[in-house]
Amino acid sequence: MAHLMNWHKSVPSKHFQNPLSKMQTALDKMMQDFYSDFGLSSFPSNEFENIMLSPSIDIIDDEKHFKVEAEMPGMGEEDIQVTINEGILCVKGEKETSKQDKDKHYSMREISYGSYTRTIRLPDSVDADKAKASFKKGMLWVDIPKKEGAAAQNKKLKVEKA
Fold first, then answer.
1. Which of 38-52, 58-72, 89-103 is predicted least confidently?
2. Residue 78 belongs to a domain
3. pTM surpassing 0.90?
């Protein structure tokens, strides 16, 4: 169970706010002001394509299953690849811009496009051969059942005074 502790630290809480979001908002406003001051109506949008995305994920470790839920808005099943190799769950996704979006002159662009890879070390108690992944409305669910008797392998140690 000790190796799970690192995951819980990296999983955003309900109230987590990206520490860079205020800076991004200020930068967006500054760029809008800059372009409007010079009478320009748009800015180059190619900088917003093919950036690295980082989806929000939740990890659930209950008695019988290990589950990963990932937000993947704007993607379809064909854009997602889920693999398990040597105890590592790997989720890859790619969100490409539409060919219809080429040569458009955006005055503002907040929708991100690009690709990402998230890897998660799985506990030894899971049965990777029985893992299943499903996707609907921008959400990916990966459900990996635990092996029979896996819960019985945990041993509670008595903490004694040194």
1. 38-52
2. yes
3. no
